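Could someone model flavin mononucleotide with this protein?
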Amino acid sequence: MNQMQSPSDQPRRPVLVLFAHPALQKSRVNSKLIDGLDQIPGVTFHDLYEAYPDLCIDVRAEQELLETHDVVIFQHPFYWYSTPSILKEWQDLVLEHGWAYGSTGNALRGKTLLSVVSTGGKESAYHPDGYNRHTVRQLLAPIEQTAHLCGMTFLAPFVAHATLRIPTDVLAVHTSDYHRLVIALRDDQVDLEKAAARDRSFINQDLNDVIRGEIR
Ligand SMILES: Cc1cc2nc3c(=O)[nH]c(=O)nc-3n(C[C@H](O)[C@H](O)[C@H](O)COP(=O)(O)O)c2cc1C
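Reply:
Sure, complex below.
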């Protein structure tokens, strides 16, 4: 993996990964996706279930973390077409009126939000004509709209589909693609307009189209 930092050695856009998996010991996909993420300079990996086993979220500490990062990643398995519960609790408590939104709520303005999701369902099931009748991105509409309300740019999600049957080599490709995307986001090498385009169902359908410069 290329863990090169920007020339100044300061990450251009520090990345905060908010990770939510209530049974990480049983995880095959997310445990692989996060392997080595915390070793990438400029990336803060924050495991919410580990930090808050009693689900009592420290709101001010979370807000301070957000204030010092430009790119926020929600990474989780898809549970009932949504997030595991701690991430909903996190949103309910941390995204306060007057801080995240409202006339004086500008703390998140200009930041970027990426959802990284693993689904049991296969790619063809997440289609208007498929079993789940919606794309993953459509089902993430509450998060996309929350980002919009807070003045953040919501990118098309990074999705690992069909996790029950995912071959090891495909999982390895997802992991290297994910880490490459994180590094490109940190180094401001992602065309955010393209990556956020409403007709893009998931970002990893063509990473070369959204990552620019030598990191491609
Ligand atoms: C409570 C629960 C709800 C789930 N809901 C969905 C769902 O709505 N859609 C889906 O595709 N998979 C669903 N799954 C499957 C998980 O998304 C899948 O097991 C997970 O992404 C695998 O990742 P892991 O190996 O990191 O645990 C659900 C699993 C559980 C336990």
